[in-house]
Amino acid sequence: MATEFMSHIVNTGNQGLFTKLPRDIVISENAILQMPTICANVHPGQSVLLITGETTGRVAGDLVYQRLKDSGSYTISQFSAPSLSPQTIEAAEEAARDVDYLIAIGGGRVIDTAKIVSFRAGKPFISVPTAASHDGIVSNRATLPTDTGSVSIEAAPPIAVIADTTIIAEAPHRLLASGCADIISNYTAILDWEFAHRLRGEQISEYAIALSRMTAETLVKQSPLIKPKCQDAARIVVKALVFSGIAMSIAGSSRPASGGEHKFGHALEKIAPGKVLHGEACGIGSIMTMYLHNGDWRSIRESLQKIGAPTTPHEIGVSDEQIICALLAAKTIRPERYTILDTSLTPESAQRLVSILYQE
User: Fold this and answer.
1) Domain residue limits, the chain
2) List of residues 6+ apart from 217 with CB closer than 8 A
3) What's this model's pTM, rounded to 2 decimal places?
4) Which architecture, in CATH terms, is 2-170?
5) Is 162 exposed, middle or buried (0-12, 13-18, 19+ CB in 10 A)?
6) Interval 177-205: pLDDT, tens
7) Which CATH superfamily is 173-240+254-358 part of?
8) Tens digits of per-residue pLDDT, 290-299?
9) Which of 114, 172, 176, 240 sits most deeply, having the most CB atoms within 10 A of its CB?
10) DSSP 157
11) Which secondary-structure segment (H or E) carries 250?
12) Is the pLDDT of residue 76 over 70?
């Protein structure tokens, strides 16, 4: 089904915020087959650069290429993004120099590459996620790895999102569960934002907070339906990821979906590279930060367990010591973003915090 969101102004206090949102969002079985019609609807131009990964090119990129080619209306070129790096972004910018718009087909690495190129080059892009593993498929933020850790940077939101539940349901369930964990962690991201508002006077957006909270609550209620290889599950999770991304676009930052649990997640990814998916780390971080906020951390853990996301270090192949190190290092990640983990956390208190992950 398609839903249109027009760019609009959201008033937050006395400050106006111009928010760009997708014009078309299509989440359905075989949605990718509608690509020529959707491109015609949003009318971004006649020449297009397809950005894919090696695997996603085979899974969906070749089909998109063929559908657009068969329509006879487009000049098509292709670019494979081997990694999300400054070098890849520069190469993609060069490849996009003479095209009207971009289509990103893949996971977070591919879509973030397209977001950044779209923002820098001033050219629109269409997001075609092949897995529901992250909430960046719609937002105007991108995560860029650097030598000192990942940073969140401004990027362009897509003009359209095409989520083919046939393809997404066939992706490994671990990716879907990771996307769920990323959404569930919105609970603590909101608490941290409100915490910074009370203690530091940071401006908040009630609109973004309400949408982010509703998205997390809806997903938790539907968590028993999140099953492997199930198109209904893929549809539920993609919708949640879309609305979480819209909350970030309304806020003009990733604050509605990124707090201490994300800082912990980025620290853990740096300490134990390749061991944990982003959403998985944020889910585990959310259990611990909810505990620090005196909230219902057991409910967070139970929801993660229902969808098949990890809740202990052992499930992701890291040690308790690495979790403790990530908790203590979290305050060095985006230090300008104040969260519950930026308070007086000691090695001893971090160790006690990890112990709750094993409590019955």
Assistant:
1) 2-170, 173-240+254-358
2) none
3) 0.87
4) 3-Layer(aba) Sandwich (3.40)
5) buried
6) 999 999 999 999 999 999 999 999 999 99
7) Dehydroquinate synthase-like - alpha domain (1.20.1090.10)
8) 999 999 999 9
9) 114
10) P
11) helix 231-251
12) yes
